Amino acid sequence: MDLPVTQYAKSGEVYVAYQVFGSGSFDLVFVPGWTSNLDLWWDNPLTSNWLKGLGRFSRVIMFDKRGTGLSDRSVGPPGMEQRIDDIRAVMDAAGSQRAALLGISEGGSLAALFAAMHPDRCQALVLQGAFARFTSWFPTQSDLDAFFAYAREKWGSGGNMVKFSPSRKDDQTYRQWWARRERASASPSTAIALMQMNSEIDISGILPSVRVPTLIIHRRHDPVVEINGGRELAALIPNSQFFESQGIDHTPWTGDDVDLIAQRIEEFLTGSRPPARACDGPVY
Length: 284
Fold this sequence. Notes:
Elements: E1 7-11, E2 14-21, E3 27-31, H1 38-41, H2 45-55, E4 59-63, H3 80-93, E5 99-104, H4 106-117, E6 122-128, H5 141-154, H6 161-164, H7 172-185, H8 188-198, E7 214-219, H9 227-236, E8 241-245, H10 258-270
Parallel strand pairs: 3-4, 3-5, 5-6, 6-7, 7-8
Antiparallel strand pairs: 1-2, 2-4
């Protein structure tokens, strides 16, 4: 497929970069993790193939959060409410009145909050590797301090890739792409400021008000957000489904179970089970 065109939505005084692709019968807003760069999604076969898979059954709308990637950078650390407004602005610009939301990692917290606050615009919710409380991501202050040290001293080196995608630890091409992704998504000071903002995330009190169909996916051995983070989401969101995979990666586009998880997402959102590509895991 041709690469999607990058466009800009106006959210207040901020420009938010977004792309639209795919040919499905419903809209799917992809809310990325804490940093991203729209152009670099398409530079790596693992990420581009993963996105194309979403585009087979939906019209995908994805964006860079304010402060990251191709969106306005010099805006200061944004709050969750500002980023919720950005999702709404992107949907308006893309001509989407109602959509399913797919949020990964920290983007899952944002997607869940959007679903709770704008149920009229969210028809379904899928959360992968996500959490309700920041402590599921960084359990202790020493863990957070270690990240700050990485951001100050090694940001842009790709060294953090092994933690997020351990199944690719020997893939030097992927590591080089990860390094470019870090540099293209945020500067070291921006990464630190964003993580300081993220450290305030606790949406546990809001999740019981989510009333849209919800699928929560979490890998049992996720090295970034512990499995209890996903289990807490499932316990707090009424009538949600929880799928636990045996994978060891945090990134949804890497690992032996990529096809299985993609199958679960498609089945949940379309109501139609695609051809099996891997062995099934437990659903709770």
